[in-house]
Amino acid sequence: MLFWHVPAPNEALLISGSKRRGQGGPEFRIVTGHGCFVLPIKQKWRVLSLSLREAEIVEDVITKQGIRLKVRAVTVFKVGDDPASIANAARRFLAEQTQIESLVGRIFAGHLRSIIGGLTVEEIISDRDRVAQEIKDGCHTEMEKLGLVVDGLAIQEVEDTTGYINNLAAPHSAAVASQARIAAAKADEEATQREQEAAALKAQYIRDASISQAGYSAEVDRAKAEAAQAGPLAQAQASQNVIEQQTLLAQRQAELAAQKLEAEVRRPADAEAYKQRTLAEAARDTVKMNTEAEVYRKVQLATADRDSNKLSVEAESLRRRQMAEADADAIKASAEGNAQAAKSLADGEAYKVRQLAQADSDSITVRAASLASGNQELIAAKQLVDNLPEIVAAASSAIGSSNLTVLNGGEGLNQLVAQVVAQGLSVYHSLRQSVAAPAAKNGATHAAQEDGNAEAVAV
Amino acid sequence: MSDDHELVGRVATVTVPIRPGKPGEVVLSVRGGTEAFAAWADEAITKGQKVVVVDQTGARSVQVTTL
């Protein structure tokens, strides 16, 4: 391995000393990725690191808006991998590889000023593409000459001496702070509300629990009291039952005694009393019967006596009364007879005069009528019938005018009247027969006959 | 510069937007890895677009155009 050299993957082997043909290429060999033979003495080899390098830059810069910023940035670069870049870099830095960073840093500081000068603060803060564009625009050409590639520029810190960034952030920070306070207040309010609600619920639960406890303790006390009373109550009830049973027993004993008394004393006494009472009643009834029979007998005797006396008295009084009545009737009849006699006499007189006048007028009328009709019988009969009451009256007046003495009282008087009537009737019959027998007679004889009969009866 | 390292005709991806006259950056697959190159274009090309290398103007500089 003395003359054979192999570069690491991040190294480029630069071999000089040999004559190189071709034009346009470098005058030394650049070997990467594989080994190569290096002739001793004649050739010389060096290694160029292709690793990443970094340079820190702190620079006061002015932005596009004229704002002064103090920027601390880190740039990351390496030697380009292509042979042209390796040749450029080798020529410049091969002997001072350890100083590349400071060299590049100083170079880059100037570029940074131009880069930042093309940007605003807002773009620096937020627009990476713009920053990258400016980096490319500002330093690419120079870096290419050095054979370097800028992989990145990291602005680590921007110190704002004028307070622009703070002012830029102020509204946002104020808004954010406001929102934060609002959120905190809301959260606090909500938390307080929840706490108060929870406290209210807690109080409610405590109240409910207390009520329930009180109710349960009341129930327990009541149950205890009932349990405490249960003993004496049961005892009292037992005593009551005992007393009831004793009462019942006493009642039964009393009933037994009563039954005994009934059977042994009262029933015999009753029987005895009944016997004596029956005997007494029998005796009394006997006496009573006897007494009544005696009384009845005496009453009957007295009644008989009294009736006989009464009958005799009544017969006597009747006899006397009848005698008095007979006397009175006799006197009355004689008076009435006198009066009737006077009346009949007057009537007879008047009647006689009137009948005479009537008879005259009638005879004239009848004669005229008989001459007219010839029906004298009927006329005569009718006249007789019409005059019958007067005939009878005349007879009776004749009786009345006579001083007739009736010996057999009222009955005799009635007989007398009946006879008078019967005589009237017989007179009527006889007159009818006499009228019927002689067909033609004159009214004068007829009236005379009638008057004669009436006088005869009156005699 | 060897032929296997020829960049022209290769497709690259823009990593820093390119403005006309101002360089951006593209990433190319070279030598088994990816390397960043400064890129110029006649038109503005936004980040992330695919571009094709039309010319290599320097060791680390290329001219690109949109596909």
Key structural traits:
heterodimer; A: 459 residues; mainly alpha; three-stranded antiparallel beta sheet; 8 helices; elongated; disordered C terminus; B: 67 residues; mainly beta; five-stranded mixed β-barrel; 5 strands; 0% helix; 51% strand; globular
Describe the largest sheet of chain A.
3 strands, antiparallel
Helix content of chain A: over 70%
Could you give the count of β-strands of chain B?
Answer: 5
Q: Please give the count of helices of chain B.
A: 0
Order of helices and strands of chain A: EEEEEEEHHHHEHHHH
How many helical stretches of chain A? 8
Question: Distance between termini of chain B?
Answer: 26 Å
Arrangement of strands in the largest sheet of chain B:
1-2-3-5-4
Task: Tell me what the structure shows.
The complex is a heterodimer of chains A (459) and B (67). Chain A is mainly alpha-helical and 459 residues long. In chain A, the strands form three sheets. Chain A has a three-stranded antiparallel β-sheet, covered by helices on one side. In chain A, a hairpin with a 5-residue loop joins β6 and β7. In chain B, a hairpin with a 7-residue loop joins β1 and β2. Chain B is globular and about 30 Å long. The N and C termini of chain B lie far apart (26 Å). The relative contact order of chain B is 0.30. The mean pLDDT of chain B is 87. At the A-B interface, α1 and α4 of A face β2 and β3 of B.
